[in-house]
Design brief:
By secondary structure, this protein is α+β, with helices and mostly antiparallel strands. It folds into three domains: 32-179, Glutamine synthetase, N-terminal domain (Ubiquitin-like (UB roll), Roll); 189-582, Creatine Kinase, Chain A, domain 2 (2-Layer Sandwich); 597-727, Up-down Bundle (Four Helix Bundle (Hemerythrin (Met), subunit A)). Helices cover 51% and strands 12% of the residues. The protein has 26 helices and 17 strands. The strands form three sheets. Strands 9, 10, 11, 12, 13, 14, 15, 16 and 17 form a nine-stranded mixed β-sheet that branches. Strands 1, 2, 5, 6, 7 and 8 form a six-stranded mixed β-sheet that branches. The protein has a two-stranded antiparallel sheet with strand order 3-4. α13 (364-383) crosses α18. Residues 453-458 have low confidence and may be disordered. The chain binds adenosine-5'-diphosphate and magnesium ion (MG). Adenosine-5'-diphosphate is lined by residues 213-215, 217, 284, 297-300, 346-348, 356, 471-472.
């Protein structure tokens, strides 16, 4: 029996994994995290203070202290039954990486002991040769090291075999260039902090720190594990390269409003429990639009912690799914013809005085501060939309962006009716001749109107890639499998740069003798005028918008290899270098790594398409073709008239046609791949893979294979069908 029918059979016998009644969240929350509170219990006063000031004020921890802290962490971990530790980091491959070491060691005289020294906490040298470095680190040297990031607390991962102490680290080359997602993110957050504090100080001298905040929304699909195992394409690429859409899809929208299926519900509760122990503050769970699609979202946190938590969550979701004989699909487009998955990044900035800088305030002064940050964000997105676009570019996200149920590849900003009016008023009423009375009028006006703008007032435009939603912006073009750090590094850097310029512009006017608040209003007005073409309130999915955007001169870069160009322009280099986020060689290296990832992903998809066509699809189709041919021959020999087997003949013709087309196109695709593989320039090769392999063959081959799926005897078809993967559980 084929894997497909085995899987369906197993499902029918349905074993549901039992989960314990959900424990009280507050009772377990953060129990696997070495938080400052835990540190208080396990560290001396001295060590605790050192750790605390390192977290709060980025101060260095000296060696003796590191030893003490390491000992404390080990004592805590051992008290929880942990014997191994690992430096945990987020390499550019897109998953998380670990290399486990044991506390166990032998002393000089052979006595076995368990120890964890400061050195082991602070720095490790994983064999890094297999992680992408974009040429930054010659492979023969293979030296990169992981360095402890005290701003992110150690935690215990206890899913699967054993329990492991994980030390969050950054990953850098021996010469100091960053090789991971985390190191540049921390630098971008630092740049934003400095620039934003400067601007805040126009309004409030007490602000000394600005922390960007992130609340992500993780979309995902869940399918049965045996069905998953019968789809080599899902195993290899995370998406189905073939599969005819099922008779019923998402058109009834019954999944979105339906209750969560019992088996998935058990899985959710289980991974939520694990997440709570790790301090991930998940709060919402619900069905999504497509069948078998779901979403979860946490309470927002500061960006660096939120990024770690998302990476950790994706890992936890995959591990826990296996306990339930399920598989979670984090790919942006696992199934053609139905919604893909995104990871909306809700982003704002908070001051250490407790103000959300993107929430309209209650007084004229705080409203002006809100307006400054609001308009600077729009300006940042306008000026650097190419960099934002590049930050979300990936092979899987190409399947989603611009498809008709995802934001387009055009970056625009939605702000809602109300703020559109406010900006219009500022544009019209802030004039050169504006005097004191105008100024106060304007302020009062804004003051009266903005507080009315509560969250439900910002219309729910779901089609915008970058939308203001009342007290935060929501960057919706981020892909479901992406590491949020990439988008967050870009967004916080462009914001830092824009705020720095804003400060210069305002100071310039003040030096010319303008009153501070008037200088601010004038600069805000100037920024509104300079960036208004990026504002769009209409249907982002429509063809009309694509045309309108083109008229406005907004870029619409549809493919990853071209979108990535924006990372290595002079503009990008000066942006990232002047904010100390990436130097030139780091940018070049990242560009190279992203292109290589793209090439590999398309190459793997292309190979699996070829292999499935040749070893799964064609044999089944040919067997059925034979059956029909024999049938016709038999009827003919029995002396029946032509009309009596006309239908069989017709089916036979169709099948034969699709068989020969499939086989022909697969051959040609293989030839095209060979040509690409001989190209030496990475960018040229990536573009060739996209245009000569993916765009030239994927859809065409799929068309014929999907036709065959409909024609061939169901019993002969070995790949689980869409209706089975999406509706059986
Ligand atoms: P929706 O689906 O309507 O967008 P959700 O409740 O699913 O709403 O998600 C909203 C997300 O926005 C949550 O993750 C929440 O934590 C986050 N969020 C709310 N306020 C802020 C903020 N100030 N900064 C960052 N994220 C925020
Ligand atoms: Mg949202």
């Amino acid at each position: 029996m084929s894997l497909r029918f085995n899987a369906i059979n197993n499902l029918a016998n349905g074993a549901e994994t039992k989960v314990d009644a959900s424990p009280k969240i507050t009772g377990i929350f953060g129990s696997n995290v070495f938080s400052l509170k835990t540190a208080r219990e396990f560290l001396s006063d001295e060590a605790y203070k050192s750790l605390q000031s390192s977290i709060k004020a980025s101060q260095k921890i000296d060696r003796a202290m590191a030893n003490q802290i390491a000992n404390g962490i080990r004592a805590w971990a051992e008290s929880r039954g942990v014997s191994h530790f690992t430096h945990w980091f987020q390499p550019l491959t897109g998953t998380t990486a670990e290399k486990h070491d044991s506390f166990f060691t032998l002393k000089g005289d052979g006595t076995p002991i368990e120890q964890f020294e400061g050195d082991a906490l602070v720095q490790q040298e994983p064999d890094a040769s297999s992680f992408p470095s974009g040429g930054l680190r010659a492979t023969f040297e293979a030296r990169g090291y992981t360095a402890w990031d005290p701003s992110s607390p150690p935690f215990i991962m206890e899913i699967g075999n054993g329990k492991t102490l994980c030390i969050p680290t950054i990953f850098v080359s021996y010469t100091g260039e960053s090789l991971d997602y985390k190191a540049p993110l921390l630098k971008a957050l630092d740049a934003l902090n400095k620039a934003a504090v400067d601007v805040c100080n126009y309004f409030d001298k007490n602000v000394t720190r600005v922390t960007p905040t992130l609340g992500w929304e993780q979309e995902y699909f869940v399918i049965d594990e045996s069905l998953f195992n019968a789809r080599p394409d899902l195993i290899m690429t995370g998406r189905t390269v073939y599969g005819h859409s099922s008779a019923k899809n998402q058109q009834l929208e019954d999944h979105y409003f339906g209750s969560i299926p019992e088996r998935v519900y058990a899985y959710m509760r289980d991974f939520e429990t694990e997440s709570y122990k790790l301090g991930i503050p998940l709060r919402t769970r619900h069905n999504e639009v497509a069948p078998a699609q779901f979403e979860c979202a946490p309470i927002f946190e500061e960006v660096s912690v939120a990024v770690d938590h998302n990476s950790l969550l994706m890992d936890v979701m995959e591990r826990v799914a296996r306990r339930h004989n399920l598989r979670v699909l984090l790919h942006e487009k696992p199934f053609a013809g139905i919604n893909g998955s995104g990871k909306h990044n809700n982003w704002s900035m908070a001051t250490d005085t407790g103000v959300n800088l993107l929430a309209p305030g209650k007084t004229p002064k705080t409203n002006l501060m809100f307006l400054a940050f609001f308009v600077n964000t729009i300006k940042a997105v306008h000026d650097y939309s190419d960099i934002l676009r590049a930050s979300i570019a990936s092979a899987p996200n190409d399947h989603r962006l611009g498809a008709n149920e995802a934001p387009p590849a055009i970056i625009s900003v939605f702000i809602g009716d109300y703020l559109t009016k406010v900006l219009k008023a500022i544009k019209e009423r802030v004039t050169e001749k504006m005097d004191e009375t105008d100024e106060s009028m304007l302020k009062i006006d804004i003051h009266r109107s903005i507080p009315e703008l509560l969250m439900d007032n910002t219309d729910r435009n779901r089609t915008s890639p970058f939308a203001f939603t009342g007290n935060k912006f929501e960057f919706r073009a981020v892909g479901s499998s992406a590491n949020c750090a990439h988008a967050m590094t870009a967004l916080n850097t462009i914001m830092a740069q824009t705020l720095k310029q804003f400060k210069k512009d305002v100071d310039g006017l003040i030096e010319k003798g303008e009153k501070k608040e008037i200088a601010i209003m004038h600069t805000i007005r100037e920024y509104i005028v300079a960036s208004e073409k990026v504002l769009f309130e209409g249907d982002g999915y429509s063809e009309a918008w694509a045309q309108e955007a083109e008229k406005r001169g907004l870029p619409n870069v549809k493919t990853t290899p071209l979108a990535l160009d924006a990372m290595v322009t002079e503009k990008a280099k000066s942006l990232f270098e002047s904010n100390h986020v990436y130097n030139h060689s780091e940018l070049e290296a990242r560009h190279e790594i992203e292109l290589e990832k793209y090439i590999k992903k398309v190459q793997i998809e292309s190979r699996i398409m070829g292999e499935l066509a040749t070893s799964h699809v064609l044999p089944a189709a040919i067997r059925y073709q034979n059956l029909l041919a024999n049938n016709i021959r038999g009827l003919k020999e029995a002396g029946l008239k032509d009309e009596s087997y006309a239908n069989q003949k017709q089916i036979l013709e169709k099948i034969s046609e699709h068989i020969s087309k499939t086989s022909d196109l697969v051959e040609k695709m293989i030839e095209a791949r060979k040509i690409c593989n001989n190209m030496s320039d990475t960018r040229t090769k990536a573009i060739a893979y996209q245009s000569q392999v993916k765009d030239s063959y994927f859809d065409d081959i799929r068309y014929h294979v999907d036709k065959l799926e409909l024609l061939v005897d169901d019993r002969e078809w070995y790949l689980p069908k869409y209706r089975e993967m999406l509706f059986l559980r």
